[in-house]
Automatic annotation (TrEMBL), chains A, B:
Residues 239-261 are annotated as: Disordered. The keyword Phosphoprotein does not apply. Residues 29-89 form the Cyclic nucleotide-binding domain. The keyword Transcription regulation applies. PROSITE patterns: CNMP_BINDING_3, HTH_CRP_2. Transmembrane segments: none annotated. It comes from Sneathiella litorea. GO terms for molecular function: DNA binding; DNA-binding transcription factor activity. The lineage of its organism: Bacteria, Pseudomonadati, Pseudomonadota, Alphaproteobacteria, Sneathiellales. This is Helix-turn-helix domain-containing protein. GO terms for cellular component: cytosol. InterPro entries: cNMP-bd_dom, cNMP-bd_dom_sf, Env_Response_Regulators, HTH_CRP, RmlC-like_jellyroll, WH-like_DNA-bd_sf, WH_DNA-bd_sf.
DNA sequence: TATCAAGGGTAACCTATGTAAATGCGCTGT
DNA sequence: ACAGCGCATTTACATAGGTTACCCTTGATA
């Protein structure tokens, strides 16, 4: 872990938020300031270990990370993926609830917003508060989908469904092409995500390849989904749970989104 | 669904919150007011159907409900249980994310807090805002545990683990004895929660009975866990994810819970 | 009293997925 | 060039859990 100064002019968070909220110039600046200090982690390093009673928020600038939990028998369950542009960690919970950890899957750069600053930022900038709210709601939607995936789908559907979700999420931050992206996951990671064994992930991946659903180059780790519609159909994938349609106006009432049906 | 006037003097929400937050007298009163209007639902009725773009919050006064999702092939996955004292629905998401539904499992009484009132209440009453924050964090911890349960445990462990979680959550609101409670769930509901078939739930339940882990009277629907420690051990249950230890002071800084290690 | 539906229980059989073990390939370090 | 490691791949075999089908009890309704 080292200190850097991040100075990208086209900020990924500004870009992401702007797609659904009209940010004021001042809010732009706040975000730019927040992302000045960055921390780098190497592949395999823990960013947060068992929650550490740390309720700071983190902005993931680049790289992939996972939130995971270890079970008594030593197994690992991956709870969720953190991709560029994601906010995480802001438990805001004063209590020690879940004790999960966050680990870098690739080299990663994050910006930390100390817990004591969060309340202040939210109070003074409606739209940034909205951003947190939205991030939480989105995270919950993703967790919900993961539960459905684990509870009600077979291996083939689980894998295809996950690959589609990742494609879709990466596209939202311009990290994926029309149907392909860089997938830095070993089969072991996939297994720990989907509640399967490594061997069965391998089998299922082969089947997806044989069915001409995907192409995966083990060298470059580039994944291509050959027929998004067919795979969506086959795995029951419905991308609407990630959609974020309308740009709401900036007035608080409308922001709650109650009036208009 | 009918309108009633709820007028319990010992309010379940006051009781629940008081156990970990020092409420002001004024806050007591706000809660009492919020819980004046109540709505009743019968077993099987939908309380929220596919999110309905409704971001109101609901307080569950009495009864059991489930949050669930239907998959394309007609199957149902139950995402979470809502028990007396729980807050739900406050998506606060202006976007249509997850489209899950909430349904009453028993006759249920809820109090509704319209979306347009939530912001106002949170602004003027720090501790009530805290209550929402806490409810969200808790819900996420429960979802996380559910993911681990589905991904990394076998049928026996899943069932035992769930029964322990319910015991624990009910105890927190005085709805369970030391080791027994009223369990209004059919085997079908259990199956849809745990990603199992009905038949296998039946088999597994029998096994738990044979192992003298539980007693379940199908007439009264009373469940007794005969040896909580043994069952916890056998199913990898660790109740800490639900614990809510210290009463934080009421000042905002402390509320974030950052300073004290 | 007869009927019906919902839920629990059980048995026979089938299959998706797990486990164990061995092979190969492509890195990295020496 | 070689050893060694991480990861993907494949085969053979074992088993947890799914499917189908049927019966029983109970309680509601006619």
């Amino acid at each position: 872990m080292s200190e850097n100064s991040g100075s990208t002019s086209t900020n990924i968070f500004v870009a992401k938020l702007s797609s659904y909220i009209d940010l004021s110039i001042e809010e732009h600046q706040v975000i730019e300031e927040l992302t000045q200090n960055s921390m780098a982690f190497d592949e395999g390093q823990d960013i947060i270990f068992e929650s550490e009673k740390n309720s700071s928020a983190y902005l993931l600038q680049s790289g992939w990370a996972i939130r995971y939990k270890i079970v008594p028998d030593g197994g690992r369950q991956i709870i969720s993926y953190l991709l560029p542009g994601d906010i995480f960690g802001f438990r805001e919970s004063l209590f020690e609830l879940s004790d999960d950890s966050v680990q870098a899957l690739t080299p990663v750069i994050v910006h930390c917003i100390p817990a004591e600053n969060i309340a202040e930022i939210c109070d003074s900038h409606t739209n940034l508060s909205l951003a947190f709210t939205w991030a939480r709601a989105r995270e919950q939607a993703i967790l919900t989908e993961h539960i459905v995936r684990l509870g009600r789908r077979n291996a083939y559907e689980r894998l295809g469904h996950l690959l589609l979700e990742l494609l879709h999420r990466l596209q939202l931050v311009e990290k994926a092409g029309n149907s392909d992206y860089f997938l830095p996951l070993t089969q072991e990671v996939l297994a720990d995500t989907l509640g399967l064994s490594i061997v069965h992930v391998n089998r299922t991946l082969r089947k997806l390849r044989n069915d001409l659903m995907i192409e995966l180059d083990p060298k470059t780790r580039r994944l291509r989904i050959l027929d998004v519609d067919a795979l969506s159909e086959a795995t029951g994938y419905d991308q609407s749970f990630l959609d974020q349609n309308e740009k709401p106006s900036r007035s608080p009432q409308d922001a709650i989104g109650f009036e208009e049906k």
